[in-house]
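This section describes the prediction task in plain terms. A model, or a person checking by hand, is given the sequence of a single protein chain and must write out its three-dimensional structure as a string of C-alpha cells. No templates, partner chains or ligands are provided. The sample shown here is typical of the held-out split.
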Amino acid sequence: MNRRRVAIAAFCLALLVSVSHGSAVAHTLQSTQADPAPSPQLKALAGEYTDPNEPDMPGSFYEQSGKLMAESERGVPTELKPISTLEFGIPDSKITVRFTLDASGRGASLAMSNEPDVIYKRTGEPVHHSFHDYQRSEVMIPMRDGVKLHTVILRASDIMTPLPFLVQRTPYGVDGTNRASFFGSRPELARAGYIYVCQDIRGRFKSQGEFVMSRALADHKNRKAIDESTDAYDAVDWLLKNVPGNNGRAGFVGTSYPGFLATMAGIDPHPAVKAISPQAPMIDVWMGDDFFHNGAFRQSYGYEYVFGMEATKENSDVSYGKDKDGKPRDGYDYFLERGSFAEDVRKSDVKSTFPTWKLFLEHPSYDSVWSARGVEHSLNAVAVPTLSVGGYYDQEDMWGPQEEYTVLEPHDTNHQNYLVLGPWRHGSWASSARHLGNLDYTAPIGTQFRAQIEAKFFGHFLKDEPGFDLQNTASFQTGSNTWKRYDRFPPKESESTSLHLQGDGKLSWADSPTQARTTYVSDPANPVPYRHRPIQPTYSDGSQWFNWLTEDQRFVTNRKDVAIWKLPVLTKDLMLTGEVIADIYAATSGTDNDMVVKLIDQYPDDAADTKMRGYELMTNEEIFRGRYLNSFEKPAALRSGSVREYKFSLHDVDHVFKAGHTVLVEVQSTWFPLYDRNPQTFVPNIMTAKPEDYKPATITIYSDPEHDSSLQVPLMNACDHIECF
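The expected answer:
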C-alpha cells in the first residue's frame, strides 16, 4: 500500500521498463561482449505498439544484440525475458507480454497478462528516446538535532555542467528511487537533467527519529526546534556543501504528503531554494483535506490511511475480511456493523491505539491540536516562486492547493504565486492518459501540463531557461475541453450568481416567489453510499476509490433520502469558472445533522458518446456537519425544528454545461462510509457515539423570501441566462 505514489493508471506498456532496476547494468554487460547474429524472429516483432484508447502512451520493442528490448517515453530500455517465441516476461514482475502475428509473420498486436482485454496495435517502427545516465548514491544527512535522514541522490553522469537540486521528501520510502523510477514518474524533469534527491522523512523507513503525521510548524525563533521546514533547510544546506557539481540552487516538488512537505520547504526557506511546486498538498487535514471536511470525519479513509502509515515504519495493508460466502466483504457493511470510530479502533485488533487514531478520538473538533497543523495559518508570504497544482476530481486533497493559492495571493507582491487546476484525480497529472474513468478529454492533458508548465517553471527558476510564460493561473476547462489562462482565479469576468432551489424540484435564476418545503427522512441505519457497491479497501487491488468522484450519480438519485432540483434543459452553453457556494436553509427533527450538496451535469439521453447518455456527472460536492454551524472549535446541538443556514464552499470549478444538458442540485444527509454517520442526536463526541444514539430524522429544506436556499455559482456568461440591466 502506498496511497501517495502517483498511480499512472493501468497502462503498463507506457511504463513497461520502469519496473526494472538493473537495466543500466544489463546494457553495460552487453557492450563488452561480441554481438550475436541478429534474430529474424525478434526483428519481426519490432515496432511501436499503442492502445487505441490511449494513443499518447505507446511503447516500442526492438531487437538488439539478439535480445528483445522494450522502451517508452517513460521507460528506460530493458531486456525482456523470453518465455516462448511470442511471449516474454518483464523483469522483476509477474507480467508477461504476448505478441500476435499478421499473415506475413510480422508483429500485429500484443496483450499484457495484467490487462488481457487491452489490445495494443502495431502503429509504426520502434521509437527511441533519450535517457540520461543517472548514477545512484545513498547518504544519511544529519539534521540540526543530530537525527539522520536516509537520502537517495541521482546525478546524471553524462551532463558536465553544474546542475540544480530537485528534491522530493516523502513518508513513502525512497529505496526504489533510481534512473528507471525517475523517468517513469517524472519523464520531462528527468530528461531536463537535475540532481534528483529523494529523502525519507523522520521516523519513516530508513530515517531516524519519530514520525509525526502532519507535523506542526515549530517556533523558528528557537534555533534548536525542528519541523519539516527545518529538515528541508538542513537537507539543502548539507547537499550544497557535500554534493559536487551543483549550481547553488534547489527546488522542491511533491504530490500529496510530499506536496505538504514541498510547501513546508517554502516557509522560512534556505536561501538556495528558488522554486517549489506543492501538488495536491495536504494543507489542513481537519478543514478540508484527508481526514475531515467541515467537521465531518472521513471514517473509512481515516481508519485505513492511519493504519497503513502508523502500524509499522513502512506501509501496511488493510483488509475487510471475507463474508459468509468467502467473498471480500463490502466496506459499506463492514463499517455499518462497526458503528462509531471508537468501535473501529476497538475491533482493529492492534496492541495499542495509533497516535493519529488517538487524535481522532480525543480531538474531534478544530482545537489547537489541529489548527497548529493547519499550514494555511503560516502562509503569510510568497517566499519563493510557488506553483500549486490541484485536481477538480481529487478524491483526497482537492482543498489544499486551492486554499494555498488563495491564502498566498494577497501576499504575492512579486507575481510568483501560480496555480494549475485540471480535471484530475489525486496526482493523475503524472499520467499521459486522455481519460479519467468514463471521461474523455481528447488530449493527454497531464503531459501538456508537465511539458508546457511544470518543466518550464523549474527550468526558469533553477536554470534561467526561457519559455515559462504562466502569468497566474492555468485551468483545463471541462465541457469545452480547452486550456484557459487567467490573470487571477477566479477571473474578473466571473460573476457570483444565485441559482435558487424552488418548489417542485425546480431550479431557477429568479428569486423564489412562493413558500416551498422539500423534506426527506435521513436514516443512519440506511445511509446513502458514496460510491457504487461493493466498496473495496481504499488502496486494495481493483479498488474504485480513485475515480469515484466521476461516477454516474444515477445509482443514488432515486433514493427517497436524496432531494433533487433541476433547471430546464439548457438551450445555450452555461460556463462556470470560480468558487461554488452552497447556501441552504434547513431544519432537522433531530439535534444534529450533516448537509451534503452536489452540483451535477446531467448529459442528454442522445449524447454522442453512448456511455455518457443520461450520465449524471458531479462537478462540485461537499459536506458540512451541523454541530459546527456556530463554531468549528465548539460544537453545539441544533434546536429541533429550527431553521438554520448552511453556507459553505463546494470549491472551484471551470466547466461548461453544454446546450442540451441539464443542471442538477442534490442534497442528502449521509455519504457513507467515506464519512461517518451522524447520529442525528447531538452527542459531545461523535467518535464515541453509542448504537442507541443513531436515530432517523426528517430534514426540511426551505425556499421562500426569508429562507432563500440557493447555490452561488460563478457565471462567465450571466447575460445569456438571466436578465441583465
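For orientation: Confidence is low (pLDDT under 50) at residues 1-12, 17-34.
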